[in-house]
Amino acid sequence: MTQRNAPTVFILDFGAQYSQLIARRVRESGVYCEIVPHDAPWSALSARDPAALILSGGPESALVDDAPDMDEAILESGVPIFGICYGMQLLAREIGAELVKLDHAEYGPASLIVGNRDTPLFDGVPDESRIWMSHGDSVVRLPEGYVALASTARCHVAAMGNLKKKIYATQFHPEVVHTQHGKAILANFLHEIAGLGDDWKMENFVERATAEIREKVGSAKVICALSGGVDSAVAATLVSRAIGEQLTCIFVDHGLLRKGEADQVVAAFRDILHLNVVAVDARKRFLKKLRGIEDPEKKRIVIGHEFIRVFEEEAERVKGAKFLVQGTLYPDVIESKTPESKAGHKIKSHHNVGGLPKKMKFKLVEPLRALFKDEVRELGRVLGLPEGIVRRQPFPGPGLAVRIIGDITEDRLQIVRDADAIVREEIDAAPLDPHPWQYFAVLTPVKSVGVMGDGRTYANLVAVRAITSEDGMTADWARLPHELMERISSRIVNEVQGVNRVAYDITTKPPATVEWE
Ligand code: XMP
C-alpha cells in the first residue's frame, strides 16, 4: 500500500539499529518515508518514483567481501542520495574512493568541523559542533567530483558530497539526539538539496495505516489485545477507524495493573471511545501461573503465554476472528530482537512481541510497529482520543509483575500498587519541567530494620524510579526536588503497610533499563 500522492523517500536498511530513527527524523521533517531492504532492486524502487534515497548505517564493514550491497543502478539513477555511516562507506567503495580500516574504531562523541559551505547541507550548523560517531573504517581519499565537506580530529572525511549529482554522506549519525545539529543536516538534505516540501503529517499516517489494515484483514473479524496503556488504546482506535464493527476489544484484567486502572480502562473504552469491549477477570488465573516464579524472563514469558491463551478462549466466542491487534512500538521491536539477528541483542522479552506461543492461532496486526512513543501520542490526538489516555505514562505489558523483584503474591502486589499510586499522585501534582517520562515504585526483595513508634520493624524496601526520556531507548534519572522526594518517601512509609524504607534509583539507561526486570 503506498502513499501515491506524497513524495516518498526510501531508506535502504543495511541492518542498523537506527534505521527507524532515521525514518522518524524524516517524518519529523514533514516528509513521507518507507524503510526497504538494502538489496531492493532499482526497478522496483523506481516504479515508486522515489524523491530521495537514504542509505542507513549497518553493523558490517564495507571492506569485507560479502558486505551488504545495493543495486548499482541506484548510483546512476539521478535521485538525490544520502549515506549514513555504513551507507557512506558503501558509497565510497562504489565511487572508487579509498577506504581504510582504522587502527582504533571511533565510538561516541566527536567535534565536527565544517570545511565546505558550497552546499546547503550544513546551513544553520556552526563551524564546530558535537556529533556522534560509530565506525571502524574511514574514507581517506575521494575521486573526482566528490569533495570532503567536514572533518573531525580523527576522521578527515566526516562528510562528503558530489554537489552536481546530489550525492551526500556523513560518517557520523545525524539521526541520533547526541548529534547536536543532526536534525538540521537531514532536513537540509531533504528540503534544500532534494527539494522536498514539509507538509506530510500524522493525518496522512492515519489514511495509509487504515488502508493497509483494511487490505490486510479483509472482512475477517479482528480481536484487539487491550492492555490499559496508550499503545493499545491508539492501536484499537486506529483499527476501529479502519474496520469498525469487525473489531472486538478484549480487556484482560490480569491483576497486575495499577490502582483503579482496570475500571478506568473499561469505562474509557466503552463510554468514551464506544468500542466493542469484552472484559475478562483473569486475576486468579495469572496469579496461580506466576506462583513461585522469580526469574524476570520467565515471568514475562508466562504472562505473554497466558495472555494469548485468554485471548484464544475469548476468540472462540467471536466467530470468524482471525487477527489479533497489538500495540507493538518500534523500541519493543528492536529490544526484543533475538541474539541471532544482526542488528540487535535480546534484552527483554516484551510480552507483546516475544513469548508468543509458536502455534498461535491469530495473525498479528501491529499498526504502530514503526512508531515511537511520542509519535503514538500524537497519533492518538489526531484520532481524537481524550488527553487522559494520550498522556498516560508508558506501562509494561507484564505490568506490576516486573516491578516486584522476586515472588509475586497478592500481598506484595498490594504493596507495590499502593506505593505506585503515591508516586504517581505526587509527581502528577508537581509542576516539573521537564515532566518525567515515567515514574513508579518497585518492590525489592530487601528487608531492613527500622523503628516506628517505639517498636522495631523489619519490613520491605521500596525503590522509586523516575526517568526523563524521549523514546524509552535511553533514559536519565529525573532530578526531583528534595521536598517532593521527601513527601513521596514519608507517604509511602506511613501509608503503605509493610514498607519501612524508600530508596531512589539514580541509574541511567544504559547501563540500566527503565524497568527493573
Ligand atoms: P526497558 O525496561 O526495556 O523499558 O528499558 C523501555 C520502555 O518499555 C517499557 N516496557 C515494556 N513495554 N511491554 C511493553 O509494551 C513490555 O513487556 C515492556 N517492558 C518494558 C518500559 O516501561 C519503558 O517505557
Q: Which ligands occur here?
A: xanthosine-5'-monophosphate
Oligomer description:
single chain
Beta-strand segment tally = 18
Helicity range: 25-40%
Mean pLDDT score: 90
Number of helices: 14
Low-confidence stretches: 337-344
Structural class: alpha/beta
Ends: how far apart?
38 Å
- Structural domain count: 3
- Cα-atom Rg, whole angstroms? 25 Å
Task: Give the tags.
five-stranded parallel β-sheet, 3 domains, GMP Synthetase, Chain A, domain 3, Rossmann fold, 517 residues, globular, alpha/beta, 14 helices, nine-stranded mixed β-sheet, binds xanthosine-5'-monophosphate, 18 strands, 32% helix
Structural summary, described in words:
The protein folds into three domains: 186 residues, Rossmann fold; 176 residues, 3-Layer(aba) Sandwich (Rossmann fold), CATH 3.40.50.620; 101 residues, GMP Synthetase, Chain A, domain 3 (2-Layer Sandwich). Helices cover 32% and strands 25% of the residues. The protein has 14 helices and 18 strands. Strands 2-1-3-4-9-8-7-5-6 form a nine-stranded mixed sheet, sandwiched between helices. The protein has a five-stranded parallel sheet with strand order 12-11-10-13-14, with helices on both faces. The protein is globular and about 80 Å long. The relative contact order is 0.09. The structure holds xanthosine-5'-monophosphate. Xanthosine-5'-monophosphate binds next to helix 10.
